[in-house]
Amino acid sequence: MASREPAYERQPVFVTHQDPVGRAEQNQIAQADLAPYGMADQVEQLWLLDQGNGTYALACIPFCVHGLALHDRVRLSDDGRWVTGLVEPSGHRALRMLWTPTTDHAQLTHRTARVKTEIATAGLLSEWRGRHVAIDLPPAIRPQPLLALMAQEVDAGQASWKWADTEPFAG
What we know:
Layout: E1 13-15, E2 27-33, E3 42-50, E4 56-58, E5 73-76, E6 83-88, E7 93-99, H1 105-122, E8 125-129, E9 132-137, H2 144-155, E10 159-163
Parallel strand pairs: 1-3
Antiparallel strand pairs: 2-3, 3-4, 4-5, 5-6, 7-9, 7-10, 8-9
Helix pairs in contact: 1-2
């Protein structure tokens, strides 16, 4: 695998994970280009755990990259900077939600608190980045109350949501 450095028209914007759910002492960070998903000049930094066989397991829940989820095994470019392919899916799914911008911060706080409560009640892992949440759904888990609450937010025009696996990974 050759090193794959995307060409950017300007300095890339980095989507980072401040508190990855799989943070460990020996994590590695690699990047995923978000241009294939309509986010030119943006890069997501993904936390990884070395599997010791040339593959790495995702140690975070992707906010933007498609086709990847927590614990999926991936391969990296020769220089170790870029995620270049999915080796083996974990069976987990990532569900993402983004609240619409608002000047009513009390309302946004209330709405996000309700979702945080449902995530905790369902015993799920999540990562937050401002108005954006990425939720890990392990195999065979369908937390209906959380999904219903998220649908209410979307129906009210307060948020949008998307499964991360609606498009394949385009490494």
